[in-house]
């Protein structure tokens, strides 16, 4: 290094170099960690995991609301290659699932790959170099040949478009950003939303608050949760004979696959499930008027099917009231409903879910030729096998468009996606490709068939749900069995991709 007046010359931006990683993974939840594990098993080790938070866990780190739990059995909501023999319950709570995630990090020694507080703000592909530039809020850019967008669809909380939402003078809490320091005892509380998180929150709050008002836009179909406390002998059996746990896991998987015949398509099983749900409602809700409020007017499966044993009984408590009048606006002291009544409360809980990227990218993504993913997804997100998008080489997604499970564990879809992604990344690195890009015609053909199949599903049967865009395009769900999804992901069809080699040896550094 040269010197000026006895001092070392400072590097200019033009001379500063940044290393190019083989793989950058965005997100340290199940998808990101699973991808890192599988990549390293294939000898791909030049990896960084970019996580915007301070710890791993994704949605299970963020959702700490009372009663938070998974609605898939624990033995199915875990990786097949890293089963946990010591689940405490049939359906585990968020804290136990987060413990399992930490176990994965420790068992597979993933901590050195982590870059916490790396909030990705955008991606841009350099065609000449065959590398992605990843912009990070408040930090230097990261560069990688391949990027895996594994941040997941349940990452950013969604607030409803209600007038006056910023005018409330009391406490405001979103289910995904829970304030564990707030004292609910003796308070008047309103819960907006009656979806998957709300039916877990309401029973817990009902035991503590002075009065709870639950605002429902649309009732949900609810089935009983077949939960149980796992006995010690069960844990010992799974620990000593892992094949026994695999057998239970497989049984649970195929039981959920059977549910698809009534949840995804309109069949006699659909009527059977609706009859079961109505009988469950009659059993738990003696009040005929409340039953009427809670009875859906759409086909089961059109919206997310919920499971709970204690939501209906909570609504029957003397200190809980269900309201199905539309909300007109939020005021300084509470909520004004459409019939003109102002409900004064101390706290509003928004159990309104997440902003799922159905018609926009999760952050700005610039592909080949300067194309913008936001523009291409403006009428609805689309990808090839949920993993790749034409014009965005070397970019892979987990739980991308049309990978949503309506009846089975998300991990039954994530695992085959990860294996497929590992094949793609392995191809890029083995053959030193500048770009591996899915063909636009292959993507179009794939999606035409998907949408044709989706038109015959319960999700597209007429109700409004977070599965659909505003104009009714289903960019979220996969129209079939998980076994079908796994089958399509087994083969990496080279003919469906364009492979472009480097003209010269790839440089491991770029200008920072």
Automatic annotation (TrEMBL):
Molecular function terms from GO: monooxygenase activity
Gene3D superfamilies assigned: FAD/NAD(P)-binding domain
Record-linked Pfam families: FMO-like
Segments passing through the bilayer: none
Keywords, alphabetical: FAD, Flavoprotein, Monooxygenase, Oxidoreductase
Enzyme class: oxidoreductase
Keyword Flavoprotein: yes
Domain of life: Bacteria
The enzyme's E.C. designation: 1.14.13.-
Name of the protein in its database record: Flavin-containing monooxygenase
Species whose genome carries this gene: Salinisphaera aquimarina
